Amino acid sequence: MKNSCVGTSLMALLFFATLTCCIDARLQACQPSGKISGIEPPPGQCNPENDSDCCKQGKMYTTYKCSPPVTGNTKAVLTLNSFQKGGDGGGPSACDNQYHSDDTPVVALSTGWYSGGDRCLNYITVTANGTSVKAKVVDECDSTMGCDDEHDYQPPCPNNIVDASKAVWKALGIPEGDWGDYDITWSDACQPSGKIRGIKPPPGQCNPENDSDCCKQGKMYTTYKCSPPVTGNAKAVLTLNSFQAGGDGGGPSECDNQYHSDETPVVALSTGWYSGGDRCLNFITVSANGKSVKAKVVDECDSTMGCDDEHDYQPPCPNNIVDASKAVWEALGIPEGDWGDYDITWSDA
């Protein structure tokens, strides 16, 4: 005979678990913070350049104190603004109290993403139309207030806006007829994490095979904990490495604690792209010279540390490196005289 009490209890637990999950999801989502009533702008007080909206008398406008969460590729709507004097951006930019030319790639972010100025004068990477551009955050697109003199009698900004100068739109190659509201993604651009001072390698402690650099005494080297965002075709620099025993790659590969022949297409990725080992033993597609090759990720090209015994007294890796075995270079048909630093694109296979 079934125990109906147990069945009922299980159903109740499932119900409350589902309810709790839904409540948590609602709490984490960005909810409106209120509404404001539109005021008709006094004559000449709302600049309609770039199709900017002007407040409508009595219309209710939603306000937000938050924006959607920021991920590696945050979805947003790109809008057009002029941050130069006399433009529809109004007064000087909030971050630096300066005006900025339409020919400079600058943006304003919705209030939640502006984060009280935490992103001021930092760069973000805006991606659309198969292209990316770095733009400096100089202002807030205010999602909490509007329809007053301070906001040029324009409504509150939606909470998912990257408001950009003409230079950003041009760099993305978006046809001018499509300028207005355009779906994009964006991410925080990769900033340096620090610097380390070079140490002269002890005798025989830096393997210069394949033109590998050796640390210079006292030279300052930049470190990174991040890499540029990975798009369908991420731009990178291909470098040459030997992952076999005795090669300039040093010890066994980090992903599998193995050495790999120069005849096997394997790569190491800069720290940000290596992603804590998330790409270990996965394949990526490397493209250059009109050809493509699949290569297995077996190691990290460390962008955070260097100039010590663990890193064979070589400097930190730049943050945009695909460090590849000879087999990768050969498969791409790159003449051996050009082996070294070579511009490529790559994507997850």
Strand content: 25-35%
Average per-residue pLDDT, rounded, comes to: 88
Question: What is the global morphology?
Answer: elongated
Q: What integer value in Å does the Rg equal?
A: 26 Å
Secondary-structure element sequence?
HEEEEHEEEHEEEEEHEEEHE
- What structural class is derived from the secondary structure elements? alpha+beta
Please summarize the sheet with the most strands: 6 strands, mixed, barrel
So how many helices?
A: 5
Ranges where pLDDT stays below 50 over 5 or more residues in a row are 1-28
Strand order, largest beta sheet = 3-7-4-6-5-8
For this structure, the quaternary state is: single chain
Q: Could you characterize what this model shows?
A:
There is one protein chain. By secondary structure, this protein is an alpha+beta fold. The chain is 13% helix and 28% strand. The protein is built from 5 helices and 16 strands. The strands form 4 sheets. A 6-stranded mixed barrel has the order 3-7-4-6-5-8. β13 and β14 form a beta hairpin. The radius of gyration is 26 Å and the shape is elongated. Mean pLDDT is 88; it is low at 1-28.
